[in-house]
Each structure stands twice: as C-alpha cells, then as structure tokens.
Design goal:
InterPro entries: AAA+_ATPase (IPR003593), ABC_transporter-like_ATP-bd (IPR003439), ABC_transporter-like_CS (IPR017871), P-loop_NTPase (IPR027417). This protein is α/β, with parallel strands linked by helices and about 240 residues long. The protein has a single domain (about 5-215), classed as Rossmann fold (3-Layer(aba) Sandwich), CATH 3.40.50. About 35% of the residues lie in helices and about 25% in strands. The protein has helices at about 40-50, 70-75, 95-100, 110-120, 135-145, 165-180, 190-195, 215-220, 220-230; strands at about 5-10, 15-25, 30-35, 55-60, 65, 80, 150-155, 185, 200-205, 210-215, 235, 240-245. The strands form three sheets. A six-stranded mixed β-sheet has the order 6-7-8-3-9-10, with helices on both faces. The protein has a four-stranded antiparallel β-sheet with strand order 2-1-4-5, covered by helices on one side. It binds adenosine-5'-triphosphate. Adenosine-5'-triphosphate binds near residues 12, 13, 37, 40 and 42.
Length: about 240
C-alpha cells in the first residue's frame, strides 16, 4: 500500500509551513525525515497521517486521495506517534497498548504481546501509565502504535527520549517491521542515526524539500551546510558513520 504527498502545501496559524512537497514513500523501507527546527517535519508527518488538511496538493494512500479514503481504512493503515509523549488516560500500560487494536475491533492479543515484547515492556504491563518515566512512556505509546499493526508506522522523533540500548532495540525492531513489508517513516534529529539506519532520507528546510534519496546523497556535507548552516564531516565506515562538527 503506497503513501505519498503530491505538491503538498500546508498552512498552520495562517502561515505557510510546507510548500509544494512531493514524496512517494516505499513500503518495506525506513524513510527518515530530517531538517532544522521549524522546517516542517512534524507538519509533513501529520499530513501523511491524515491529521492536517492540505492547503494545496494532496496526500495519497494506495493511489487514492487520503481525504477520500474510508476512515476505517485510514485508521488501520496509518499508525501515528506524535512528538510529545502525552498520555490522556491514566490506565494500566497493557490497557493503553490494547487501544492500538481499536481500528480492528478485535482483541488482537498476539499483536499486543508482540508489541510489549518488542519494546521490552513486560515489567510495566500492570503499572498505571502516569507512573512511568518519560522514556518508558514513549515506549508504551509506540507499543500502542505497533499493536495496531499498521501498514505505515509514522513516528515523530520516536528515539528522542530513549536511552542508547532502547534506541538500538527500537531501530532493530523498525528494521524488522520494514523487512516484513511495513512502511516506516520517522522524524529524526540525529543525522548519524539517519545516515546509518535509514534506507532513504528526506531533508526539509524552511518548508521546502531540499534533498531526497539514499542517506549518503541526501545527507552530503553540502546539504548539511545548506540546511543547517553547519560545516560537518562524515567519518567512519558505511553503516557506522559519525558526523564531526
Ligand atoms: N499548532 C501550530 N500553530 C501554528 N503554527 C505552528 C503550529 N505547529 C507548528 N507551527 C509552525 O509550523 C512550522 C513548522 O513546524 P513543525 O513542527 O512542522 O517543524 P519541525 O520541523 O517538526 O520542527 P522541530 O524540529 O522544532 O520539531 C514552524 O514555523 C512552527 O512554528
């Protein structure tokens, strides 16, 4: 099931925040969206999730405008993790994760157990969500997305609150999701993570798309200079690169 944006422009607070962006995303791969603060990354992800109406252009799911897709199909296809890890309902962790099955209207026990295992949340399952650390809460909210087994995982900075070991664990899991055919789109600030782990990188700057392609091309030193105004150099081998600034 394909997902993409075509000539997409977005307005927020009366201001154009994304201008004429076109991307076709590929199932079975990890795409990282990167760019400076305010570049429009979260806005693009919100639009891909069907949560922000285009000002012009459109988002397509399975070759059809997202606005014209049935709500249930969208809810099953698109699993969105917002940037801030707010939990509105103070229920037990396993109950919260089970909410990810709502679009399927089933108990989905196996999928819930897989999500709990993937994010190593076994010890927290009975705990009220209000009694978790920031990183634990972020993992629970991501587990809720995974429990829904969406065709597309759209996650806004899913690694930001996680420690090193849990970052690695999550990246490994997202790669496994992609290997099984799910599309993974993640907003990242850590360019080395994008360079080393994404199949493709989309670089936004000031609401426009300035690079889109394999990490080594899209995150070239000249693109980094153009987007962030920083002189950076990549060191190390492919798959284990570090950015020196
Ligand atoms: N709810 C909102 N109302 C009005 N303007 C907004 C709103 N949310 C974001 N914006 C503006 O839209 C632009 C793009 O914001 P967005 O959150 O998409 O950027 P971002 O690339 O995700 O940034 P960051 O790296 O800081 O998270 C910014 O100029 C921001 O100030």
């Amino acid at each position: 099931m394909t997902l993409g944006a075509q000539d997409l422009s977005l307005d927020r607070g009366g201001k154009r925040v994304l201008c004429d962006v076109s991307v076709r995303l590929n199932p079975g791969t990890i795409t990282a969206i990167v760019g400076p603060n305010g570049a429009g990354k979260s806005s693009l992800l919100l639009a891909l999730a069907g949560l922000l109406e285009p000002a012009t252009g459109r988002v397509n799911l399975d070759g059809r405008g997202l606005q014209d897709s049935p709500a249930r199909k969208k809810a099953r296809a698109l699993g969105y993790l917002p940037q801030s890890a707010e939990i509105a309902w103070d229920v037990a962790v396993e109950t919260l994760i089970a909410l990810g099955r709502l679009p399927h209207r089933d108990r989905g026990t196996a999928a819930i157990e897989r999500a709990i295992a993937a994010l190593e949340l076994q010890e927290f399952r009975k705990r009220p969500a209000s009694r978790l650390s920031g990183g634990e809460r972020a993992r629970v909210l991501l587990a809720r997305v995974l429990a829904g087994e969406p065709q597309w995982i759209l996650a806004d900075e899913p690694l930001a609150a996680l420690d090193l070991a849990h970052q690695l664990n999550l990246i490994t899991h997202l790669k496994a999701c992609a290997a099984q055919g799910q599309g993974v789109v993640i907003v990242l600030h850590d360019l080395a993570l994008a360079m080393n782990h994404a199949d493709r990188v989309v670089v936004l700057s000031k609401g426009g798309l300035i690079a889109d392609g394999p990490p080594a091309d899209a995150l070239s030193e000249s693109v980094i200079k153009q987007a962030w105004g920083v002189n950076g150099s990549w060191i190390g081998e492919q798959g284990a690169r570090a950015l020196v600034i």
